[in-house]
Automatic annotation (TrEMBL):
Residue ranges constituting the Mycothiol-dependent maleylpyruvate isomerase metal-binding domain according to the UniProt record: 18-125
Name assigned to this protein: TIGR03086 family protein
Gene Ontology molecular function terms on file: metal ion binding
Native source species: Prauserella muralis
């Protein structure tokens, strides 16, 4: 559980760094996520964090969205991020999280959450006009784990096709490219 939690903590820290640059004027801006503007992405992130909190608090993940969009998307995201770290810090090392009818190691669920939070943290920064590379010490383990979470069956529905980049690119750029983003 320690590795999944450490990745989750670093992913949240990275994403929060970009969220502080979101303004109401930026909400209608396009994002690297196909057909989503920043408001849509922030709502998706809010729902994702709620789902990850549910996994930590209850040991299962429901298949329905968490509810209504909060009035203050950025403030709500920051609060959820803090609750997320607090909740996952209390999860026992050998715990399982049930996704539908399948138990998964909590460490794997936390790592999947770290991938989601990191890539969307980059998306937020990009939508705000910022160049915030994913740090190598975060990107490297996520790049190794990503093929477990994103398969050909997930494309083109949940993720775009991978973008071709040099294998000598920074790990953060290779992670983004694997997840269908153009890091350039």
């Amino acid at each position: 559980m320690a590795e999944g939690l450490a990745l989750l903590e670093r992913a949240v820290g990275y994403a929060l760094g970009g969220l502080r640059h979101v303004s109401s004027a930026a909400l209608p801006r396009p994002t690297p996520c196909h057909e989503w503007v920043l408001r849509d992405l922030l709502w998706h992130m809010t729902d994702s964090l709620a789902t990850l909190c549910e996994a930590a608090d209850l040991g299962h993940i429901g298949l329905k969205p968490s509810g209504d969009e909060p009035a203050d998307l950025v403030g709500g995201l920051c609060e959820r991020a803090c609750a997320l770290i607090h909740g996952w810090a209390a999860v026992e090392r050998e715990a399982a999280v049930w996704v539908a009818d399948r138990p998964l190691p909590a460490d794997i669920v936390a790592a999947a959450g770290a991938v989601e939070i990191t890539v969307h943290g980059w998306d937020v920064a990009r939508a705000c006009g910022l160049d915030r590379p994913v740090p190598g010490d975060l990107a490297e383990p996520l790049l190794e784990l990503s093929p477990l979470f994103v398969t050909d069956a997930d494309r083109p529905g949940r993720f775009a096709e991978p973008v071709a980049v040099s294998p000598r690119c920074e790990p953060g750029d290779r992670l983004l490219a694997f997840l269908g983003r153009d890091p350039g």
